[in-house]
Amino acid sequence: MNDKWVVFDLIGVLAEPSWRETVNNPSIDKWETFRVGKTQEADFWTHATGEVYRKMLRFRSDRLVLVKRLREKGLKVCVATNFSKEWYDTLLAQLDDASLFADRVISAEIGAAKPEGRFFAELQKHVPAGTIFVDDKKYNCDAAEQAGFRSIWAHPGARVEEQIDRLLDS
User: Fold this and answer.
1) How confident is the model at residue 26 (pLDDT cuts 50, 70, 90)?
2) What SS3 state is found at 6?
3) How large is the angle between the packed helices 160-169 and 61-72, nearest 10 degrees?
4) Mean per-residue pLDDT for 11-21?
5) Angle in degrees, 0-180, between the axes of helices 85-92 and 47-56, rounded to the nearest 10
6) What is the distance between the alpha carbons of residues 112 and 23, in angstroms, rounded to a whole number?
7) What is the CATH number of the domain that holds 85?
8) CB burial of residue 67 (10 Å; 0-12, 13-18, 19+)
9) pTM of this prediction?
10) Residue range 10-37: average pLDDT?
11) 3-state class (DSSP) for residue 144
12) 81 and 34 in one domain?
């Protein structure tokens, strides 16, 4: 793979809100099995809650601008997320151009989630070593670094665009 890639987490980086913002007492145990595809959405929460969440899901317009800018520069973009395929498809349906994303790694499809090594081993099958990896969780960035990626922690206030440009220039 000679192409240059940037890998983005989905919720908290490219899109929002987190499912945690839709329920009062989130069940972490149910999330742990749902996010790796061991259970279905109906086992995670009610149908009504799922419908409300899908209506709330949105790409961040500033991050879509960034993705488009990276694509115009000839880079490929991969989404790497702890998410369900159905929720991802809900987001893609909002785009005029779903080809913005050249590839994806979705935890529910591969049976492993960040920060597990198995997740990053799968990601390495899609993008080359040294690829930039952007995530809003520090522990996922640490795991990505251990797996050979160059990470950017997209915490609130982080200048993600500037950091990407700096790493691309280095």
Assistant:
1) low
2) strand
3) 20
4) 93
5) 40
6) 24
7) 3.40.50.1000
8) buried
9) 0.93
10) 88
11) helix
12) no
